[in-house]
Amino acid sequence: MKCTLCNSGTVFFFIDENYRRTYHQCTQCKSVLLHRDDYISQQNEKERYESHNNDIHDPGYQKFVQPVVDKVTGLYAKEEIGLDYGCGPGPVIAHLLKKQGYSVTTYDPYFDPTPQVLNNTYHYIVACEVIEHFHHPRQEFQKLKNLLKPGGRLICKTDPYTQQVDFSNWYYKNDETHTIFYHPDAFEWIKNELRFSELKMNGRIIVFRR
Predict the structure, then answer these.
(1) Closest Cα to residue 92, out of 114, 108, 79?
(2) CATH number at residue 191
(3) How is the beta sheet containing 148-157 ordered, strand by strand?
(4) Beta partners for 21?
(5) Where are the beta strands (DSSP E) in 20-172?
């Protein structure tokens, strides 16, 4: 199969006997990819998201997204406009930012499908635990870049794959809706290919600047 991000060739990487899923690794950007034959249906995907405990008032959930909230509040003023992309059934980031007086719009293809918000541009976009679900990541990143104002930032939270990860025991692969695990080389590829002006990686927080 071809890499869903950079369209380069891939090699066999791992087969998960417990979940009957096969993974390949891109020879260029080093992403690890779920084989397309193992993608679940949209209906099953939506049901999986609905099973998440995404209560916006849950302290554990709030703590989980707090690094993204802190990144926004550290970079932007309250009057600057943001988008919580892939906000899910419980848009906790937007909730926490609005409590602080920020102006944030939400969008989710399943739970908040308001296409008109994709006609606007934003000072910042947050995508928390979203990009690893992309079926067409290059197109999605291009779309998100186009939604940014000049100099705007795309703030992502995901768990990158590196050679230090024990993939066979990695919890992150067990979610059947995760289709791509980005290597740091993949983020560099996105930055260069889509001509973002800046990329900063700090653990699970990945920030692209238009």
Answers:
(1) 108
(2) 3.40.50.150
(3) 103-107, 81-85, 122-128, 148-157, 205-209, 198-202
(4) 16
(5) 21-26, 32-34, 81-85, 103-107, 122-128, 148-157
- Strand (E) or helix (H) holding 200: strand 198-202
Top pLDDT among 49 and 81 is at: 81
Q: Is residue 119 part of a domain?
A: yes
Side-chain half-sphere CA neighbours of 53 within 13 A: 7
Residue 170 lies in a domain: yes
Q: Strand 122-128 vs strand 10-16: parallel, antiparallel, or unpaired?
A: unpaired
pLDDT at 52 over 80: no
Question: Domain range holding 103?
Answer: 10-209
* Amino acid 53: pLDDT: 66
The alpha carbon dihedral of 110, 142, 205, 163 has a sign of positive
Do 79 and 104 contact (CB within 8 A), yes or no? no
Domains: count for the chain: 1
Does 128 map to a domain? Answer: yes
3 assigned to some structural domain: no
Per-residue model confidence as pLDDT tens digits over 144-194: 999 999 999 999 999 999 999 999 999 999 999 999 999 999 999 999 999
d(CA 183, CA 25) in angstroms, rounded, equals: 10
108 vs 117: CA distance, rounded Å = 10
